[in-house]
Amino acid sequence: MYDGFLFFTSYYFVILIIITIFAHIIIRNSQNTNIMNYSALLDDLKAIVPSQQIYTDELRTLGWGTDASFYRMIPKVVVRSDDEQQMSGIVRLCAKHHIPYTFRAAGTSLSGQSLSDSVLIVAGKSWEKFTIGEGQASIRLQPGIVGSRVNQILKPFGRVFPPDPASIGAAMVGGIVNNNASGMNCGVHANSDRMMISARIVLTDGTILDTGDENRRNQFRQTHPEFISKIEALRDEVRANQPLAERIAKKYSIKNVTGLNLRPLIAYDDPFDIIAHSMVGSEGTLAFLSEVNMKTLIDYKFKASAMIYFLTMKQSCESVVELKKLKATETDLEMSGEDLMVKSAEMLDYMSLASVDDPVYLKYKEDVDAGRIEGVATGDYHNLTALLVETKAVDHAELEKKMQTILEVIPKDHLYIPAEFSEDPAVYGKFWAIRSGIFPSVGGMRPTGTSCLIEDVAFHVEDLPEATVKLQKLIADHGYGDACIYGHAFEGNYHFILNQSFATDDEVERYEDMMKDVARLVVEEYDGSLKAEHGTGRNMAPFVKYEWGEDAYQAMKQLKQIFDPEGLLNPGVIFNDDPKCFIQHLKPLPELTYDIDPIPVEVKRANKCIECGFCEVNCMSCGLTLSSRMRIAAQREILSLEKTGQNPERAERLRKQYRYYGDQTCAADGLCATSCPMKINTGDITHLVRQLGVSSNPTAYNIFNYASNHFAGVKQGLRVVLDMANLGHTILGTSAMNGICGALNKAGIPLWNPAMPKKRSQPKQSDFKPLSDTPLKAVYFPSCINQMMGVSKDAPVKNTVVDEMVKLMNKAGYEVIFPKGMEKMCCGQIWESKGMMDIADRKTAELEAALWEASNHGEYPVVCDQSPCLHRMLKKITKMKLYEPADFIMTYLRDRLTFHKVDRKIALHLTCSMREMQLTNSLIDLAHLCSDNVYLPEGVGCCGFAGDRGFTHPEMNKWALRKLKPQIQEKGIEVGYSNSRTCEIGLQNHSGIPYMSIVYLVNECTD
Ligand SMILES: Cc1cc2nc3c(=O)[nH]c(=O)nc-3n(C[C@H](O)[C@H](O)[C@H](O)COP(=O)(O)OP(=O)(O)OC[C@H]3O[C@@H](n4cnc5c(N)ncnc54)[C@H](O)[C@@H]3O)c2cc1C
Ligand code: SF4
Ligand code: SF4
């Protein structure tokens, strides 16, 4: 018995070991297969995509793994695609290796739909082609064009791109269509679904289908008969199910982006139309959209807005219901796609008004606390609600009629103050600024470490009075007392902003409970939409069936199955079996904690970053290395790893990679701040990182400090270098110099280019004859660069900038005063860009003292010929009137000169500093005084030269100006003008035409 037991036990034990070993081998093999798949995919990808467009390193996968949502997934591979054929190849390869993938446009999605932990395929900045259709009534667009750019293209024709998300300045057409994004005006009537004419798509098997091209359709019928018949069968099945068909029609009568778009199945008979329109709102789960043909709408010339303050939220919503009934004319239908008198009505609750310190809200508070509002207790401000109403018309008489009709509908006794419209853009612009300011204000005020969540629900308009009040209470009951509710009331679509921490389980649970209650309210009580604009993503995926019901859900699943039978496209988005997926993969937003006391203001500001990506559109290094958003995300990760001590190896690897991708290739120009809702200048963070780096590199500091104390000598040395380079150029010729200097650059020597100037000897006051009998005096500080540099070998002009500037000032009757000791002076920019702030500030202080004396204690204006230098001077020197050339000429010289235009096509370059100082109009207006053919090249922001980086990191300049030369050639432009010498060197090098200071042009065009 005992022997039997022993035998049995041993036998069992041996079997167990064998099973374990087998299991181990199987698991290991399966893991290896997984790894093998990715490495095999990479090998295959490299055959069709340049290797510099494929990233697998920790830093860049982290950067591209960041979108505007509060989720984080880090892709294993990021591929940046360029064109349709290549895209077809990429998706074929993913299918071959059974590897899931996700598409990315601008990554401004809020629901976690542009993230992947597998392969992320970026189709943004290289996909910007467009073709305007006949009569400008339509436009064909590639997916990487930013929405606001489409409006710029259409503006000269008085037309607009209908979808209008608030993110239109950053979001791209691919993302707008695939999210079915919408905003204040487009409602349901003019969203991508209604405005789409046809689509060009790349299917999961790599097939390219253009639903607007008869040949492609016929071909597709031959090659994919089953695909077509399945679409037709689904269409017929849905239509045969009458309750389902009616439900679909009702649900899409208001904004709805929960789940896949079922409307095409009832709205279109043609299977190709169904295929094209199913792409709208599909969030990259069906196919790749490589081009879309969209209708355009006509812009109105006459517009007016009114900010109307109601005594209660319910009353404001009752007015919305009445306003929605006001019909306009047939002309309206033709122009805007609908015939309503009100074009938009935005609701702002009291917290929204409070967040922007709305003056009427502040007055209301005073009135409440003084007991002047009947029936409202002291301290209770929650009733006040504003409606921002807009109407538009073709002529003024019609506009007046519309304004009057609208005001008549609103009961006077429901209002806190009388309502009135304004037609003055300066006045109504302020109303819209209040509306646009809510999100950044709330986001900016949130506690560090919390996420700024924007939820997005819609009710049928007739339900608004009751539903809105309940929504407000529900959110407050869950402890979100600081949440704002605002949004497109006219469409029944509200957003609410929550400052949410995901640091503890309790906080996650609080969010989960609130979301479930919101779902119950919206779905069960009002049959509304859980997502109206922002997409289902991972955020609403568990609620799709709950909102739509079984039949609709199954129809969506069938649609997905037809397009993506293997389920490789954006898995986890829209369809997700995990009921808790909306609280998985939550993104940490750790504080940026640099070891500096007190915390600098730029760090405090950067801590407000919500990773929305609005800055990327202006970031010159986005696509070359990291973008501004990625820099902040990477800094957050590195600092958090350092603080917690977790994974020091990863921290070290990220730090190492950051040196080139994050620090060295940031132009520190600050253009990112110009499109950031929080005004975060990532360039400031770059300066700070450099500053902290300096303390660990005393040798570099000492060298730069020495240079600052012997600046005149250093400049003399650089003149010798310029001389030698010019001699080399003359003797060896351009191509030999390029070859030699390219090789030297690889060894770390700054790169020479043919646009490099000859030297200029040190300018002195005695070089210029003083003007006699002129009371007009101005101080001229030639930047150190213009003190050193002459003209380039092949320049079409002979004089240096300094000579031209003096000549122009004298011509206008101004006596020129140089600051004493200017050969030693610098604005400090050189040191600031290296993070050596103390030296930079010392140099500025020296300059300030010299300018103060030269300007007779601020009596005379001061002009500096280099706009980036002026930018720094303006930040540091406040007691004098400081100008760069264009603004100086427009302010002081213009009326003293006679302008005659040249007959020449010219290009203008608006430097980053001019944009930041908001002086671009001076340069543009001045150029227009000189020529009728002034061209501002598109897609050229920061030139990437960044002081001296154009010499040390020429790839930045090349990348930033990659779109310049084709435009210059196409337009036949002969010469370019700007007001920054270093930028001009880079521009000349990459455009093939000379670029020079605007002062040359003004001298040529004036007597
Ligand atoms: C502050 C803020 C305000 C916002 N306001 C609004 C608003 O008012 N209204 C609104 O609707 N949204 C709004 N959004 C959300 C978001 O900006 C929009 O949905 C936008 O249209 C997304 O565009 P994107 O280029 O960033 O796309 P991405 O986020 O890159 O992608 C969106 C989805 O489309 C897919 N996709 C992208 N390109 C393609 C392609 N070529 N083919 C197939 N699939 C593709 C992606 O996989 C993803 O699922 C806001 C976002 C932020 C941060
Ligand atoms: S820096 Fe500004 S624009 Fe850029 S991601 Fe952060 S908040 Fe958005
Ligand atoms: S400073 Fe310039 S390069 Fe650097 S993150 Fe900002 S926009 Fe990009």
Plain-language structure description:
- The protein contains 42 helices and 27 strands.
- By secondary structure, it is an alpha/beta fold.
- The strands form 7 sheets. The chain has a 6-stranded antiparallel sheet with strand order 12-14-13-16-17-15, sandwiched between helices. Strands 5-6-10-8-9 form a 5-stranded antiparallel sheet. Strands 1-2-4-3 form a 4-stranded mixed sheet, with helices on both faces.
- Strand 8 (196-202) and strand 9 (208-210) form a beta hairpin.
- The longest helix is centred in the first third of the chain and has 45 residues, at 2-46.
- 50% of the residues are buried.
- Mean pLDDT is 92; it is low at 1-34.
- Bound molecules: flavin-adenine dinucleotide (FAD) and iron/sulfur cluster (2 copies).
- The site of one iron/sulfur cluster (SF4) has 17 residues, from helix 23, helix 25 and helix 26.
Keywords:
binds flavin-adenine dinucleotide; binds iron/sulfur cluster; 1007 residues; 12% strand; 42 helices; alpha/beta; globular; disordered N terminus; 5-stranded antiparallel sheet
